[in-house]
Amino acid sequence: MTRLTPRILRLLGGLVLYGLADSLIIRAAIGVEPWTVLAQGVSERTGWGIGILTNVIGLGVLLLWIPLRQRPGLGTLLNVLLVGTTIEFGLWLIPPVDLLWLQIVLFAAGLLLLAVASGIYIGAALGPGPRDGLMTGIHSRLGWPIWLARGLVEGSVLLVGWLLGGDVGIGTLVFALTIGPLCGITLRWFGGRERYGSMKSAPPMAPVGQTPAPTTTPPKDSDARRPALPHP
After folding, report:
1. Measured CA distances, 47 to 2, 40, 41, 53, 158 (Å)
2. What is the C-alpha to C-alpha distance for residues 190 and 14, in angstroms, rounded to an integer?
3. I want to staple 161 with a disulfide (CB 3.0 to 4.6 A). Which of 71, 127, 147, 166 is the partner?
4. DSSP string covering 14-80, please?
């Protein structure tokens, strides 16, 4: 437990920073990533907070792990509980802005902070986020490449969110093009690149507190080793 404690603290810090980063991007109001577009769209129809819906959607996605035979880790469960809650706090703390230069500053700050937060919480290696687990579960059970599973799922989520009134804009495109390379850098900084690669290729998660067995053979799918956007 003593050796596990620093990883738990790292996980908690990373998830809280992730939620704050998301709130900065939302307040920038120039486009958000696909899952937040969905949360915004549902929020427009229900009146629920975006952060609350982020948690609810995360829980719904987690239920999809069951037929895919994915097992959540501690990080997965805390992800569902903390990211949306922190988004709500960030949206309460950060007022809306309407000056373009300030929107750009907020978006850039949120994007960079999200990449750093991703490197921190992924480096803890206590379980992927529910949305990432969905992608890896599809990859493991159906044999689809990670890029295909991610593209189909996120494309569908983006379309539904946009039809419901979610915020799709230039920021959505910038996010899609830059978050992968940025996370590739932060994963190297925080030692999460190898761990993230193993999470991408291994179907079940090792129980919390146990060290996953080392593997001597690389994943067959080169996409499984490619840094990609980690979702809350």
Report:
1. 43, 10, 10, 10, 19
2. 11
3. 166
4. HHHHHHHHHHHHHHHTS---HHHHHHHHHHHHH---HHHHHHHHHHHHHHTHHHHT----HHHHHHH
